[in-house]
Every structure is written in structure tokens, then in C-alpha cells.
Amino acid sequence: MSDNGFINEFYKLLNPADPWTGDEESLKALFEIKLQQYGLTMNQAEKLLSMQKRTLEGILDKSAKRIDVVSLLKLGQFLGLNTDALFKLYLKEASHDIVGELEDAKRKSFIVSNFDTKNLHKSGFIKSKTDFDEIEKRIVSYFGLNSIYEYGTKSYIPAFSRTKRSANVLMKEFWVRSAYSHFEKINNPNAFDREALVDLIPKIRPYTMNVESGLKIVSQALFNAGVTVIYQPHLPTTQVRGATFVINGKPSIVLTDLNQRYASIWFALMHELYHVLYDMEEIEKQVFHLTGEPDLFLLQEEQANDFSREYLFGRDKVKYIRPYIDSPVVVKEFAKKSQVDPSLVYTYYCYDMEADEKGSFWAKYHAYQPDVKRALRELNVNTFDKDSIDDTIKYLNDHVFNI
Fold first, then answer.
1. Which residues contact 236 (CB under 8 A, 6 or more apart)?
2. pLDDT, tens digit (0-9, with 9 covering 90-100), for 22-42
3. Which secondary structure element, helix H or strand E, spans residue 303, and what is its range?
4. 325-364: per-residue pLDDT in tens?
5. Residues near 132 by Cβ (< 8 Å), separated by ≥ 6?
């Protein structure tokens, strides 16, 4: 017999031989009716069901702390109840302890099916992989939820597979829902002004020379043009380099620290601004676009990369500086003339040399890279370290957006 055939035969066994069609309030009341109907004594019923007196009374009197499912199913046959009716009647009378245990199991199952606890622990977001009460408390507090089941109820965030819940999908969804919640709560009061953004873009590059505050100043200017920019660290298994969201007709950008390079932060910002200028309508349909992750909608990634690269430090400039790359004085002066931080010169030199298969020079010029945390400090170094998204919003509103 095949597996399906066996299961079908088993299901047939669960159908009662003498179905009960009445409406009883308890298993015990129905049991008494069945004893009278069949003219049986309690002792005879115990033998019929092959159950000990203590086991049977434990179910009927609700005194048993634990019951085995086979005993309950046998009793259901005697009472003429199908499985659904049997469990409904049993649970209707179940003690608060049993109901509590079922609820506990449901909450834990929800957590393991919606969160990758292993990688959330690895990221430092949760302190334990197994203390589910603490995990639930941490998630609920962070997102400001009324219950853990509210996570994932925002159906307007699309595109996450419900059938292939891999670690990458779960972590990516967590990252997206966190970013979305930030933008939803910030709720930029400024209308998006595309012309203001177009006017602003040529003025951004010199701020790369201000490692400490450049990103903050640019973010403030973009905010006034209706473009909200936040920083959110990358999470294990994700490859998101940046992201653009469109919420209520307003574009919002997330910067990450995936590559831990100062130049990459600015590259990501200009890349996402290209999407705001030219792909906003398409992104609004999908709600968000993640740069670095596979994109089913085939946005203009190459054009966005070229736009960002040529704007910040183009290939001709790298070609010019190549003979002088080991002269810090010349590089510094050329960077100043090009209105960029010197680290961008070294970064794009290394990038082009590697792309031209002339070797890897990242380690050689690593010392010229500013600590990316210095640049991100004023944009809130790690939102996942905060107790709640509201804490981050308060910081951003008070110190960055001035609202």
C-alpha cells in the first residue's frame, strides 16, 4: 500500500461507526448518554476501550495533566465524534494550563517560521537563540507591536516567498520591514520635489570631503526635498548594498555598511538617487527596490552604477591618477581638485585595477580608508542596537531632520 493509500485508510478509521448528531456541552455528559444508549457499565466501557479507569476518568474529569492522543481518539470513537468535533469539545473544557501551553507553542512556532533566530543572534539583535520569551519581547518592543502576530500583517510589503522561507528570505524580510517601519514613523512632512533634487545633486560631491558630518548635512538637504535617508546595518545572509522605498508618493533611501568602505556609502547614495530620479514610478508599484539582491523587475542597475561612478570619480580621473597613486601628496591634491575625499580616489583605483585584472590593491591602500563608522555616527550608527524603532526615530528627528 502506498503512503497515500495508508493515510486514506487511517482517515477512514477516524470516522465514527455511530456518529453523534446531538449538541452536548461536555465529553463526560456525552459519555453518560452513550453508556445508557448502549446499556453498558463504566467497567464494560473501560474494557471496550482497552483503557484503565484512571486514564478514562482523567480525560472525562479533566483531572489528567497529560493525555495521549490514541486514548482520546478511542474515546471519540465511542462517543461517535469525528476528530474535529472531538478536539473542539475537549479543548472547550481544557484547563487554563493546557490552553496556555498551546498558545505558547503557537507563539514559538510563529517565531521560528517568521524569523531566522540563528542569524538575528549572530547580528547581535537578540541575546539568545533559544529563550523565546526574550526573543518575542525583543521583537515586539523593537517594532512597537501589540503582539508578535502583528509582524508580517502589513500585506502592502510584497515579494517575499511564503513557500521558500530560507535564511536569506527571512533576514531580508526583517531588514525590509524594519526600514519600512522607520520611514512610516518618520513620515517626512516635506512633499517630494524632483526639481529641487535635480538642483541639489550637483552640490553633493564636495560633502564627501567632510567625513564626520558630510552624510548628515546631505541627508538634511535631501529631507527638505522630500527624500528621506537613513542608515541601517546589513544583516547576515543579506547582500543589500542600498535600497529605495516609495511610500505615500515619497522616496526614501536606506544606506548599509555591507562593504565597510566609506566610498561605498556615497556610491550607494548616488545609485539610489538615480533610481529616485528615473525609476520611482516602477518602484512605487513594488514599494521597494533592493540594490545588491536579485531584482525580478530589472531596474536600470547598470545605468544607476554608471551614474554614481561617473558623478563621484569617473574612469578618466582614475586613468589620470594611476602614475601618481603612490604619491599621497599628489593624490590628496587631485582629490581636493575633484571635490572628493582621497579615499574615493584609492577606492576607484583599486576597483578599476581589479576589473582590468591587474591585481588586487585593496590591502595596500586600506590605510587611506576612513572608518566608515565615523561617517555614519551622526546618522545613527546601529538602529538594531536600539530598544525600539521609536528610539531611532526620536534621535533622527532631534539630531538629523530637525522636526
1. 119, 122, 123, 171
2. 887 899 999 999 999 999 999
3. helix 301-313
4. 999 999 999 999 999 999 999 999 999 999 999 999 999 9
5. 107, 108, 111
